[in-house]
Structure to design on (928 residues):
C-alpha cells in the first residue's frame, strides 16, 4: 500500500466513524427522553414541608410537533422498589392528560424525614410510551413540632443589646457508636447561623435561616451530613450573627427588631446501619463563647480579629472548659417551616480590573461591576495589622471614593491579621453593594490577587437571555440582570447598599414579569408571598415593605400605597402566568381579596379610592422649569387605576378557581371602579385629568377606557412622547409605556424611547458607565454631579422593568394568558429601532423557548424554538403567507405546522414543538 493510500484509508475510516456515530445514536436512541424532573420547582429537594408536592418533567424529542397524550408517575420509598415497580407507594397508572407540569402528588401521607423516589413515563399522540425517566427524589423535613426533640438554646452570657455584639459560638461533642447509614442536621436560629461539623462548614448556604416574617414563621434548613460524621468522636459548632433579627434594620437606626437575644435550635439525626437511630441536638450540654467576630451587621460590615480565633473549636477534642454554658429558651417550634424558596449562595467570583490612587490619595480597587456580596481578602503580614475595606458604588466627579449615598450604612470590613503565613478571609453575616473598594492598612504592595469579589444572591436559576445588534441595549439587559441578582437576596429588595435593603412591594410588582423572564423565580416569590399574607394588616392593608419592619407593632396602622400594596395581587398573578401555577393563586386568594376589599371599603359608595397615603408615580421626571415642572400624575388617578387593576386580576382569579359568585361580585365592583375612573378623570373627548405618559399608560394598560376612547388616548400618549422626545414616567409608568405604545402600533415612538441616550432614558446611565439599573433616571447628572444623596441608589431594579418589553415585544416571546406557563406560546417578533437582529430565549417549565429575527438582504429570518408538549402561534410581521419559506420549503410542505393564515399584514402560523427557520421578503408596512 502506498503512503498516500494509507493516509486516504485512514481519513476514510475516521470520517466514517465520525459520520456513523450520530446516525447510530439516532437509530437506536429513544425518540423521546424525559429530563428536568422537578418537585416544587426544585431538583431533588432535601427538607420539604409541602405535603402534596407538585411534580414536573420535560420531554426532549427530535420530532416536531411532539405532544403528550398520557403520563404515569410512580413513587416508592427506595430506588430498588421503584425500579422493580414493586411496593410502590403511589402509582397513577396511565393518566390520559396533556399536562406535564405541576402534577400533584396524591398518594399516602408523607412522613417527616422520609425520602421519596419517583419517576415518570409518557405517551405521545400516537399512544407510544417512552421509557421510564431517571429516578428523582424529594425528602421531607420535620413536619410537626413534636419532630423536634431538642430545645432552643441561647448563650449564657450578658450582652448590651443596644449595640452590635461579638458573634456567639456554640459547640458540643457527641459520640457516633456505629456505622452510620444516613445523617441529617435540621437547624434554625433567631438571627443568622453558620454550622460546622468536625471542623468543616455544613452546607454552602449563606444568611440561613433566611429572612421571613419572623413573628409568624421562621425557616429551618435540612442538611445531609452523612459524609461529614465519623465513627467515634464528633463535634458540632455554630456561629450566630445578628442579621435581620436583631441587627440594624431600616433607615432610622432601629435594632432588635424581632428580639434582642440570638438563639439556636439544632437537631442531628443519625440512622445507623442496624436500623437504630440517635438524636443529638441543642440542649444544656452545649458551651458558648465569643471569638474573632467582634461585630457583624448587614449594613455596617464586619470587624474580625483573627488573633481571637479558637483553633479547632468545631472539632472533637477542643478544650472548652473556659467557655460559658447555655440557657434553654422557651421559643415556639410550631412556627418552623421548610424553605419554599432557593437558598442564598456564593454564585460567582469576580477578579478586580484595576487598582488606582484616587486624587484624595486613597487606594481604590475597581471590581469592574457594581456587585452584591463581599470581598475575599488574601493578605500576609505581621499579626495585629488591621486592613480596612470600605465599599462604594461610584466615584465622584473628581474620581474620589463616594459613600454619601450609603447614608449611615458603613459597609466596612476591618480585618486584623493573625500573621501566620497567608490569611484568607471572607465576612460572615453581612453583604455589601459595591463596585469600588477602598483599601487601608494593607501591609504589603496591593495586587489584583489580594481581593476577589464574591457575588452572593438567592440561587435563582438563570432562565432568560436577550441579545440584539445594539451593544448599548445588550448592556441594558446586562444591567437588568445584575440589578435583579443583587436585589434577590432572600427577599426582593429595593437596593443592596444603603441602610435600607427592604422588601419594597412597589419595586417588586413593577419588576416581577421581567424577573420571571430572566430567572426561575417561582419558588423565590412563593416564599415571599407567604410573608406578604402573614404581614398583611387585619384591615387588609399591605405594608410598604415585606417582611414588614416599618410598623409591624401597630396592627391598626393602615399603611398601604397604590402600586405598592398591589404587589399582593400582581405578583401571584405573574407567577400564575409565567409558571401556570394555580396553587399560588389558591394560597394567596385570601390575601388578594383582603387587599381589594380594603380599597373597596375605603372607597365606599363613591367607588373612588383617594383617601389614603400613596407614593404615586414615584421618581417621575421632574424639572426646575417654570413652564413645565415635570410629569406629575395625579395621585388619585394612579390609585383609582390600581384599584381597578387589582380588582380585575382578583375577579379573573376567582373565576379561575371556580368561585363564580365572587368572580361576578368583583366584576361588578370593577365596572363601578371604571365608571368612576371615567367620570372623575376622563373628559368626554378622552383627555385624562393628568395629561401625562403615566396616566395614559395606566388607563390603556389596565383597560380603563371605553372602546371608543382608546385609540385617541394612545394617540395622545404617542403625541406626548413625540413632543418631549423622552420618557417622563416614574416607577409605575415605566414598566407600561413601551408596551402600550406598541400595542397600539406606535413602534417608532417606543423604539425611540428605548434608543435614546440622553437623560432621561434607559441608556443614559450606560453613557455614565452604569453596570446596574439606577434608582433615578439621573443618579449621576449630565454634569457628573450626583442626585440627592438621601436617595440615590445605583442598584435598584424597578426601571429595569423595560426587560419584559425587550423579551416580549422586540424578540417576541409572549405568554398566552389562556394557556399560561408557556403551554401555548405566542411568538410575535417586531423589527424596528434600527436593529438588524434581536433574539431571546427562556427556560420554561416545559423546556427551552427561543425566538429571534434578523434582517438580511431585504429578507426577514425568524427562528423559533418551541419545547415538546407545547404549541405556538407565530405571527410573522409584514409577511405574505405564500412568500414564506420554512427551512427553504414552502409552508405547505413543512412538518410541524398545524395551520397558517393571513392575518392582515402578518402571517399567523400555528406550530408544534421543534425548531423553525422562516424566511420571507418583508412587505411595506401600511401604518404611518
Ligand atoms: C425605596 C424604594 C421604594 C420607595 C417608596 C425608597 O426608599 O428605595 O424603592 O419603593 O422608597 O417610596
Amino acid at each position: 500500500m502506498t503512503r498516500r493510500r494509507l493516509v486516504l484509508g485512514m481519513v476514510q475510516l475516521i470520517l466514517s466513524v465520525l459520520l456513523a456515530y450520530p446516525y447510530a445514536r439516532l437509530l437506536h436512541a429513544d425518540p423521546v427522553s424525559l429530563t428536568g424532573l422537578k418537585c416544587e420547582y426544585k431538583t431533588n429537594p432535601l427538607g420539604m414541608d409541602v405535603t402534596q408536592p407538585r411534580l414536573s418533567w420535560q420531554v426532549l424529542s427530535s420530532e416536531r410537533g411532539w405532544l403528550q397524550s398520557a403520563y404515569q408517575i410512580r413513587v416508592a420509598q427506595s430506588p430498588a422498589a421503584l425500579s422493580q415497580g414493586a411496593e410502590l407507594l403511589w402509582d397513577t397508572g396511565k393518566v390520559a392528560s396533556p399536562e406535564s407540569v405541576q402534577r400533584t402528588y396524591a398518594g399516602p401521607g408523607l412522613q417527616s424525614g422520609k425520602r421519596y423516589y419517583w419517576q415518570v413515563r409518557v405517551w405521545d399522540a400516537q399512544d407510544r410510551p417512552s421509557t421510564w425517566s431517571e429516578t428523582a427524589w424529594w425528602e421531607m423535613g420535620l413536619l410537626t413540632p413534636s419532630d423536634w426533640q431538642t430545645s432552643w438554646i441561647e448563650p449564657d452570657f450578658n450582652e448590651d443589646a443596644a449595640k452590635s455584639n461579638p458573634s456567639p459560638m456554640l459547640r458540643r461533642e457527641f459520640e457516633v457508636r456505629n456505622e452510620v447509614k444516613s445523617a441529617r442536621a435540621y437547624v434554625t436560629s433567631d438571627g443568622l447561623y453558620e454550622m460546622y461539623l468536625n471542623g468543616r462548614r455544613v452546607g454552602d448556604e449563606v444568611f440561613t435561616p433566611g429572612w421571613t416574617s419572623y413573628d409568624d414563621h421562621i425557616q429551618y434548613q435540612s442538611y445531609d451530613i452523612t459524609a461529614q460524621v465519623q465513627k467515634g468522636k464528633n463535634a458540632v459548632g455554630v456561629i450566630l450573627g445578628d442579621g435581620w433579627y436583631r441587627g440594624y434594620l431600616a433607615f432610622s437606626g432601629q435594632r432588635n427588631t424581632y428580639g434582642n437575644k440570638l438563639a439556636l435550635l439544632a437537631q442531628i439525626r443519625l440512622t445507623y446501619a442496624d436500623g437504630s437511630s440517635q438524636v443529638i441536638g441543642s440542649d444544656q450540654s452545649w458551651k458558648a463563647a465569643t471569638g474573632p467576630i467582634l461585630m457583624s451587621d448587614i449594613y455596617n460590615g464586619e470587624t474580625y480579629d483573627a488573633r481571637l480565633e479558637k483553633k479547632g473549636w468545631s472539632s472533637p477534642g477542643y478544650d472548652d472548659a473556659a467557655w460559658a454554658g447555655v440557657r434553654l429558651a422557651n421559643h415556639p417550634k410550631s412556627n418552623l417551616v421548610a424553605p419554599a424558596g432557593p437558598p442564598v449562595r456564593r454564585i460567582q467570583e469576580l477578579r478586580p480590573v484595576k487598582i488606582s490612587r484616587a486624587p484624595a490619595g486613597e487606594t481604590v480597587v475597581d471590581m469592574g461591576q457594581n456587585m452584591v456580596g463581599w470581598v475575599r481578602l488574601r493578605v500576609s503580614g505581621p499579626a495585629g495589622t488591621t486592613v480596612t475595606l470600605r465599599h462604594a458604588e461610584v466615584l465622584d466627579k473628581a474620581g474620589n471614593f463616594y459613600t454619601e449615598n450609603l447614608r449611615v450604612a458603613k459597609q466596612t470590613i476591618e480585618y486584623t491579621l493573625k500573621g501566620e503565613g497567608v490569611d484568607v478571609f471572607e465576612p460572615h453575616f453581612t453583604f455589601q453593594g459595591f463596585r469600588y473598594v477602598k483599601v487601608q492598612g494593607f501591609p504589603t504592595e496591593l495586587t489584583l490577587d489580594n481581593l476577589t469579589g464574591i457575588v452572593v444572591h438567592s440561587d435563582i436559576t438563570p432562565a432568560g437571555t436577550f441579545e440584539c445588534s445594539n451593544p448599548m441595549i445588550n448592556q441594558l439587559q446586562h444591567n437588568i440582570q445584575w440589578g435583579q441578582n443583587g436585589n434577590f437576596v432572600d427577599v426582593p429588595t429595593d437596593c443592596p447598599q444603603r441602610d435600607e435593603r427592604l422588601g419594597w412591594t412597589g419595586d417588586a410588582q413593577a419588576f416581577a414579569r421581567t424577573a420571571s423572564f430572566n430567572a426561575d423565580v417561582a419558588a423565590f416569590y412563593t416564599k415571599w408571598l407567604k410573608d406578604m399574607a402573614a404581614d398583611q394588616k387585619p384591615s387588609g392593608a399591605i405594608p410598604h415593605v415585606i417582611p414588614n419592619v416599618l410598623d409591624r407593632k401597630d396592627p391598626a396602622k393602615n399603611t398601604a400605597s397604590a402600586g405598592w400594596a398591589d404587589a399582593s395581587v400582581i405578583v401571584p398573578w405573574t407567577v400564575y402566568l409565567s409558571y401556570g401555577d394555580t396553587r399560588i393563586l389558591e394560597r394567596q386568594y385570601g390575601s388578594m381579596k383582603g387587599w381589594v376589599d380594603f380599597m373597596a371599603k375605603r372607597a365606599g359608595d363613591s367607588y373612588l379610592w383617594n383617601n389614603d397615603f400613596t407614593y404615586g408615580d414615584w421618581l417621575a421626571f421632574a424639572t426646575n422649569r417654570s413652564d413645565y415642572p415635570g410629569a406629575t400624575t395625579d395621585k388619585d388617578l394612579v390609585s383609582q387605576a390600581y384599584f381597578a387593576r387589582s380588582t380585575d386580576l382578583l375577579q379573573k382569579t376567582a373565576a379561575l378557581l371556580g368561585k363564580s359568585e365572587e368572580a361576578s361580585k368583583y366584576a361588578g365592583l370593577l365596572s363601578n371602579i371604571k365608571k368612576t375612573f371615567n367620570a372623575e378623570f376622563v373628559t368626554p373627548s378622552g383627555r385624562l385629568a393628568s395629561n401625562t405618559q403615566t396616566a395614559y399608560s395606566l388607563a390603556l394598560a389596565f383597560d380603563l377606557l371605553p372602546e371608543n376612547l382608546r385609540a385617541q388616548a394612545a394617540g395622545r400618549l404617542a403625541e406626548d412622547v413625540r413632543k418631549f422626545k423622552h420618557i417622563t414616567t416614574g416607577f409605575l409608568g415605566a414598566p407600561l409605556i413601551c408596551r402600550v405604545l406598541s400595542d397600539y402600533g406606535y413602534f417608532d415612538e417606543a423604539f425611540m424611547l428605548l434608543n435614546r441616550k440622553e437623560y432621561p432614558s434607559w441608556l443614559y446611565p450606560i453613557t455614565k458607565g452604569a453596570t446596574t439599573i439606577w434608582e433615578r433616571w439621573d443618579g449621576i447628572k449630565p454634569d457628573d454631579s450626583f442626585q440627592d444623596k438621601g436617595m440615590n441608589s445605583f442598584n435598584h431594579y424597578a426601571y429595569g422593568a423595560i426587560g419584559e418589553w425587550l423579551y416580549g415585544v422586540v424578540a417576541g416571546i409572549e405568554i398566552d394568558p389562556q394557556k399560561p406557563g408557556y403551554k401555548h406560546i405566542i411568538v410575535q417578533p417586531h423589527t424596528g429601532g434600527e436593529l438588524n437582529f434581536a433574539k431571546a430565549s427562556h427556560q420554561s417549565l416545559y423546556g427551552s423557548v427561543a425566538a429571534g429575527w434578523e434582517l438580511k438582504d431585504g429578507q426577514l429570518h425568524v427562528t423559533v424554538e418551541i419545547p415538546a408538549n407545547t404549541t405556538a402561534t407565530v405571527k410573522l410581521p409584514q409577511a405574505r403567507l405564500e412568500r414564506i419559506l420554512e427551512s427553504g420549503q414552502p409552508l405547505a410542505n413543512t412538518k410541524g405546522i398545524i395551520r397558517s393564515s393571513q392575518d392582515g399584514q402578518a402571517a399567523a402560523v400555528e406550530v408544534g414543538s421543534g425548531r423553525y427557520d422562516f424566511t420571507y421578503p418583508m412587505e411595506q408596512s401600511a401604518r404611518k
